[in-house]
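Q: Given only this backbone (234 positions), what sequence would you predict?
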């Protein structure tokens, strides 16, 4: 340790480990170092040694401000309480703020349609993940809501498009359809149907009329081809 370190520790001990005679009438003996631990106790009792806020710029600013002093937007200050007490108070206020929106939103949400995408055996221990890449898009011009997704296993070469009207009382034609890529990128009709088969890695809407997809060659070999394609929604 350097002489500077020793001096720092000595100054700390001299300042913080002085006895506090004014606290002798309380249970036990207290030292100024208790000023740290008192904030961490999960109790509702007042602090043994409340902090001195005299000269604090923030408190002086609030005291001199007529509008901020009584503003409901400022969290109240409890100089006599521990951090645990303040934390519980804040959690209670946050829960109160969130409860009303949760009730309103919860009551406004209802099921518009139910579509059966696949069935699995009830005897299976673990349910396989068959639903992948859900991407949402809202066409505000046509008031249509889209969901892009793929189904694994026997339909990896297909991308599914679900379309619903934002007004749940109205329906649209072709509410759900599938686009199969397969071997449509083959250079000639002479190529084997299995030689250039593609599956969808990812798919997003580019704009209201265009879907961008990343395709992967399905053959089991190194250097699989990747294709970035933009498809018109029509």
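A: Predicted residues:
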């Amino acid at each position: 340790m350097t002489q500077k370190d020793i001096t720092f520790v000595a100054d700390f001990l001299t300042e913080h480990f002085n006895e506090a005679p004014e606290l002798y009438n309380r249970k036990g003996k207290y030292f100024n170092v208790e000023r740290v631990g008192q904030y961490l106790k999960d109790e509702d009792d007042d602090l043994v040694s409340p902090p001195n806020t005299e000269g604090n710029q923030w408190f002086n600013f609030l005291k001199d401000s007529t509008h901020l002093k009584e503003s409901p937007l400022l969290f109240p200050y409890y100089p006599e309480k521990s951090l645990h007490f303040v934390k519980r108070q804040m959690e209670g206020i946050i829960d109160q703020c969130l409860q009303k929106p949760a009730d309103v939103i919860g009551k406004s949400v209802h099921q518009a349609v139910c579509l059966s995408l696949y069935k699995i055996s009830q005897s299976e221990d673990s349910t396989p993940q068959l639903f992948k890449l859900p991407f949402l898009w809202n066409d505000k011009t046509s008031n249509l809501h889209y969901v892009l997704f793929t189904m694994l296993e026997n339909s990896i070469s297909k991308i599914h498009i679900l379309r619903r009207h934002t007004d749940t009382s109205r329906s649209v034609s072709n509410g759900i359809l599938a686009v199969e890529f397969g071997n449509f990128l083959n250079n000639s009709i002479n190529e084997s149907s299995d030689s250039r088969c593609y599956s969808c890695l990812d798919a997003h809407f580019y704009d209201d009329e265009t879907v961008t997809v990343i395709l992967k060659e399905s053959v089991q070999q190194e250097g699989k081809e990747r294709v970035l394609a933009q498809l018109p929604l029509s």
